[in-house]
């Protein structure tokens, strides 16, 4: 398949890049030998596949400029950077990387909740700066037994729920519709969910409906003893509202892996102690990134061999 | 009971201190300028000692207090109390089991996630503005890793239950096999270490378990293994652990306890695969209040001649 042209939108993983290079005629959009307009003029007709991720996907403009595009294989489970409607219109296949990253993202959700509640990063900093000699830190908050509210009970949300249960947490959730086969309490209104839990975890996909699903009302309902954990997408949360709530003490704390304008993070949060900020690392482990890359490659190979896709997005 | 003298060994909890002050004649040992004079002067009025993980009731103190009837520890660990001497002299001993089990187990899991996923390091990375220059490095998956637990008591079992929710296969070492559990038993700590990815110390500190994690165990755990200590500092041969970490012979460590708290080996401060906490295993508002209430409940029960709530001796 070395004559098949594939466009990779941005750096994602060296292993994936090498695999794509060895199997296809790979173009790296961040490292073109000519200017972008020239590149598109000369090569747009040959490109049959785009490999995108959570930073740069395949928006309307890109799809329009690639007349022979057959498949968009996303190195992510989130599809918010892909114009799905346009792909559907044009019969372009789309694949993502579900399941292989579910555990890592759920682990991070719990890790962030523990880090915030038990002040793990604050304590680590305290010890490493030599301050323990001068006295103890104040007390933290217990995690076990707290009520956890999950926004979006898909694969990741369910994995978070399963883990939280082992800590004797009471689980409730909000999603578009109630899920059969769960014992968790359903709230059809996210404000009610926030009002009835102590730790609110955002685990839903980003769509037009879920943009800013965590807004001022939800933050107020969660309250000064509530904690927000976001392992979904930055845009699921009204970021300026979140920042002011944290600065003003109207929200008890937050563990955030995703931001509205990555890699930019509101600098007012840097000095805030009850916040843990990580750089979109939900699935960034050695094991999972390789599994995701293998899934991207397998989907592409299946497509070009005329075989069924492994993880098509319908 | 206001005439009963109670000696508090060190500062541990303002609420506990206040309550002890209200109910008894409280002597704060850390505020006493001349400790030996103090003991001579007050030895006949002190009938109870309240200690904790830092400062308990050793042989010397017990000998100096002839009217001592009860030692109530604000901890579950008893390593700072001369239990044999208490038994000999008919002195009762109580501790605070159960109320802190969940917090300590939560912290063990928190440390595992923090070490493997480099949570504190990546938080620092964001706060220093480095994310604008590039992504953080890849870390290590936690789900499915083999967890080996030293000591399968209340805390060990609570850690196992939590780790199972992350699909971690559980194995353990303890003095005797616990046939009622399904977890895999290893008769030696070295074998346990050789067969797990994350080794957690959750046993009590006794003469037998001092330095139970030694060079051999550290070597068996190996370059990809991670050590988590939420037990007591002396469980681990600290200099051996430090050199193993500095020389990268072990994959990482999450430590809540140290041999000479609050001193922590400074060679560890710059390592990105190490998370260090200032003995906060039970350090939550909720749990410290529950522990304090248990200490008070035990003391009241004793002085009212009722059964102790959580007696050890």
TrEMBL record, chain A:
Listed PROSITE patterns: D_2_HYDROXYACID_DH_1
| Protein family (similarity comment) | Belongs to the D-isomer specific 2-hydroxyacid dehydrogenase family.
Residue ranges annotated for the D-isomer specific 2-hydroxyacid dehydrogenase catalytic domain, each copy included: 26-313
Does the UniProt entry include the keyword Oxidoreductase?
Answer: yes
Q: Does the keyword Oxidoreductase apply?
A: yes
Can you name the source organism? Hibiscus sabdariffa
Q: Could you tell me the keywords of this UniProt record?
A: Oxidoreductase
The D-isomer specific 2-hydroxyacid dehydrogenase NAD-binding domain extends over: 110-282
Q: What is the name listed in the Swiss-Prot or TrEMBL entry for this protein?
A: Hydroxyphenylpyruvate reductase
Task: State the coiled-coil residue ranges.
Answer: none
From TrEMBL, chain B:
Q: Which intervals hold domain D-isomer specific 2-hydroxyacid dehydrogenase catalytic?
A: 12-312
Using the record's annotation, list all stretches that form the D-isomer specific 2-hydroxyacid dehydrogenase NAD-binding domain.
109-281
| Matching Gene3D superfamilies | NAD(P)-binding Rossmann-like Domain (3.40.50.720)
Annotated family: Belongs to the D-isomer specific 2-hydroxyacid dehydrogenase family.
The species this protein belongs to is Hibiscus sabdariffa
Task: Give the UniProt keywords, A-Z.
Answer: NAD, Oxidoreductase
Entry protein name: Hydroxyphenylpyruvate reductase
Q: Which InterPro entries match?
A: D-isomer_2-hydroxyacid_DH, D-isomer_2_OHA_DH_cat_dom, D-isomer_DH_CS1, D-isomer_DH_NAD-bd, NAD(P)-bd_dom_sf
Please indicate which superkingdom the organism of origin belongs to.
Eukaryota
**What PANTHER family does this protein's entry cite?**
2-HYDROXYACID DEHYDROGENASE YGL185C-RELATED, 2-HYDROXYACID DEHYDROGENASE-RELATED
Q: Does the keyword NAD apply?
A: yes
**One Pfam family it belongs to:** 2-Hacid_dh_C
């Amino acid at each position: 398949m070395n004559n098949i042209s594939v466009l990779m939108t941005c750096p994602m993983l060296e292993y994936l890049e090498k695999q794509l290079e060895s199997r296809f005629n790979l173009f790296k959009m961040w490292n073109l030998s000519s200017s972008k307009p020239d590149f598109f003029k000369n090569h747009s007709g040959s490109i049959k596949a785009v490999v995108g991720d959570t930073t740069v996907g395949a928006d309307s403009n890109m799809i329009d400029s690639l007349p022979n595009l057959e498949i968009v294989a996303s190195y992510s489970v989130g599809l918010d950077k892909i114009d799905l409607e346009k792909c559907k219109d044009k019969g372009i296949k789309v694949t993502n990387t579900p399941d292989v990253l579910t555990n890592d993202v759920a682990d991070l959700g719990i890790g962030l909740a523990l880090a915030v509640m038990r002040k793990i990063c604050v304590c680590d900093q305290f010890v490493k700066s030599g301050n323990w000699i001068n006295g103890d830190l104040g007390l933290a908050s217990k995690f076990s037994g707290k009520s956890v509210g999950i926004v979006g009970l898909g694969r990741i949300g369910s994995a978070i729920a399963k883990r939280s249960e082992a800590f004797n947490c009471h689980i409730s959730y909000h999603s578009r519709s109630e899920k059969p086969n769960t014992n968790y309490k359903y709230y059809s209104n996210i404000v009610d969910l926030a009002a009835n839990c102590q730790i609110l975890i955002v685990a839903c996909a980003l769509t037009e409906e879920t943009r800013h699903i965590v807004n001022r009302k939800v933050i107020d309902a969660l309250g000064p003893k509530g904690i927000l954990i976001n392992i979904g997408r930055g845009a699921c949360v009204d970021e300026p509202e979140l920042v002011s709530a944290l600065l003003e003490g109207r929200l008890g704390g937050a563990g955030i892996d995703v931001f509205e304008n990555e890699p930019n993070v509101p600098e007012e949060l840097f000095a805030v102690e009850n916040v843990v900020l990580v750089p979109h690392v939900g699935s960034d482990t050695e094991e999972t990134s390789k599994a995701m890359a293998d899934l991207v490659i397998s989907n592409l190979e299946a497509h070009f061999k005329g075989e069924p896709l492994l993880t098509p997005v319908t | 009971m206001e005439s009963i003298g109670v000696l508090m060994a060190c500062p541990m909890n303002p609420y506990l201190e206040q309550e002890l002050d209200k109910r008894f004649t409280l002597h704060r040992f850390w505020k006493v300028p001349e400790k030996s004079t103090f003991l001579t002067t007050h030895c006949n009025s002190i009938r109870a000692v309240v200690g904790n993980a830092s400062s308990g009731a050793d042989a010397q103190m017990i000998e100096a207090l002839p009217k001592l009837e009860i030692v109530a520890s604000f901890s579950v660990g008893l390593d700072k109390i001369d239990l044999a001497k208490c038994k000999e002299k008919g002195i009762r001993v109580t501790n605070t089991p159960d109320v802190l089990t969940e917090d300590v187990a939560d912290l063990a899991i928190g440390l595992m996630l923090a070490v493997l996923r480099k949570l504190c390091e990546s938080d620092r990375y964001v706060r220093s503005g480095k994310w604008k220059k590039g992504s953080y490095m890849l870390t290590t998956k936690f789900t499915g890793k083999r967890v080996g637990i030293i000591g399968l008591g209340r805390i060990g079992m609570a850690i196992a239950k939590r780790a199972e929710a992350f699909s971690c296969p559980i194995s353990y070492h303890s003095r005797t096999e616990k046939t009622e559990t399904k977890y895999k038993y290893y008769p030696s700590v070295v074998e346990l270490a050789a067969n797990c990815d994350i080794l957690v110390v959750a046993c009590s500190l006794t003469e037998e378990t001092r330095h139970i994690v030694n060079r051999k165990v550290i070597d068996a755990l190996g370059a990809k293994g991670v050590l988590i200590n939420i037990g007591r500092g002396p469980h681990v041969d600290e200099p051996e652990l430090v050199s193993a970490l500095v020389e990268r012979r072990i994959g990482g460590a999450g430590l809540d306890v140290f041999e000479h708290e609050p001193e922590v080996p400074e060679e560890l401060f710059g390592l990105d695969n190490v998370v260090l906490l200032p003995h906060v295993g039970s350090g939550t508002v909720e749990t410290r209040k529950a522990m304090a209430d248990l200490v008070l409940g035990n003391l009241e029960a004793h002085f009212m001649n009722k059964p102790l709530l959580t007696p050890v001796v």
